[in-house]
Amino acid sequence: MSGSKINLLPNIISLLRFLLSPLILLVPRERLFPFFLVLAFSDFLDGFLARRLKAESSLGRILDPLADKAMNFFALYTTVFKFNLIPSYIFWSLVLRDILIVLGGLHMTISKGVVPKARPLGKLTTFMVSFLVVISLLGFNHPIFYYLCQFFILASFLDYVYVYLRSFR
User: Fold this and answer.
1) Less Cβ around it within 10 Å: N or C end of the chain?
2) Alpha carbon of residue 92 to chain centroid
3) Can you tell me where the transmembrane regions are (predicted)?
């Protein structure tokens, strides 16, 4: 593969995660754990490759978080409404947070001409939601995991609000 094609690899992985995420709705429960694990691993892999290959891009800054949001949306939707494993407030708070973050990021991109970078707390929240899905699929449902995930959803939202407001000072 040539250098430019290799540099596209992280974006291709993100795009595949985005396109495959809706299939979570169709995967039987006994196969959802490995399917979701592959998608979650692809999140790690695309970021690792982008840094390693020095292939970070504006497209990647948009595509990777959208793929993460799609993956977590469909996984949470399925574990909440199809399998009744996780309380619905986790799903709705994540959806609200993500809608507001996308709108804020879009506004920043249009008004400032710069695609905002993902925040460490946002990445940690993505990990926590994925972790919650995985442990719930494995049968480890305990309210402490719900509260912890909810804490990160709220904390990351407040972090993004802080960055958004600071960028317009």
Assistant:
1) C
2) 15
3) 7-26, 89-109, 121-138, 144-165
Q: pTM for the full model? A: 0.89
Predicted confidence (pLDDT) per residue in 8-50, tens digit? 999 999 999 999 999 999 999 999 999 999 999 999 999 899 9
CA 113 to chain centre: 23
What distance in Å separates the CA atoms of residue 14 and residue 20, rounded to the nearest whole number? 10
Query: How high is the pLDDT of residue 112?
Result: 86
> Which CATH number does the domain housing residue 96 bear?
1.20.120
Burial of 57 (0-12, 13-18, 19+ CB in 10 A): middle
Per the structure, the complete domain to which residue 51 belongs is given by 3-167
Task: Output the CA torsion sign for 147, 148, 149, 150.
Answer: positive
Give the Cβ contact number of residue 65 at 10 Å.
24
52-82 confidence digits (pLDDT tens): 998 888 788 889 999 999 999 999 999 999 9
